[in-house]
Amino acid sequence: MNRQCVNCLKTLITCLNFLCWLCGAFVVAFGEFQMMHSRFASLVTTFWPIFPANTLVVTGTIVTCVCYLGVLGGMKENRCMLITFFVLLFILMLVELAMACVFLVYNREIDSYFERDLTKSLEIYRESSPQSNKTIKDDFDAVQHLFQCCGVHGISDWKGNVPLSCCVEDPCDVLAHSDWQEGCLHKLRDWFARNYLSTGAGVVTMFIIQFFCLCVSVPLFCHFSRHGLAYQ
Question: What is its subcellular localisation (predicted)?
């Protein structure tokens, strides 16, 4: 194998590792975007650790760090760094598969979590003084305004003390106005389900790219090492 071909293959390994890094960076950015534009975390706390935005940020950060090691190892032709990268990437792929299974299990339990958590949040909102529990109040108001709904199962959940965020008109006439009648449970649950679907699709896509990079990079690396062509 001539030197030019060897250099091309080494460049290919580095580019594949860089592609993994780009995927991780994109996942982090997308997760941060979701965290900035989703103000519902305080209402649904039972499965907060696998809240879609949190999962994307944590997974993307780990992928970015691991793949940066692969890019650096490829550029410096460092055997130790590349072996470490391959091992960590393999472990990360196993974790991503486990995460996909967790998402599948929790997706089936999402109804019971949502109803219990939203009902608890509504009770806290209804029983709180005007200056307390501002986060829950702001989040519940945002949900009702955004999804055009009122209460968990319907407007009757408020027991006559209906907040202005249920108002149909915008801006709302405080003295005479009509309110949304439909509850927020199904609308917010469907919104989370779509987020879970997109998050799961992102994890699967990232897994496929990583699997491809691993399948291509490892044989090339082993070939180079066996013939003593590169990587010290």
Answer: Membrane
**Overall residue count recorded for the chain in this entry:** 232
Model confidence over 40-60: pLDDT tens digits?
666 776 655 556 667 778 878
Give me 174's structure tokens.
């405080």
C-alpha 202: how far from chain center: 8
What angle do the packed helices 185-227 and 3-37 form, to 10 degrees? Answer: 160
Residue found under tokens 């393999």: 90
DSSP 226: H
Strand partners for 182:
154
Which of 89, 174, 164 lies closest to 130, judged by CA?
Answer: 164
The structure's pTM equals 0.62
Task: Specify whether the backbone of 151 is left (phi greater than 0), alpha (psi in -120 to 50) or beta.
Answer: left
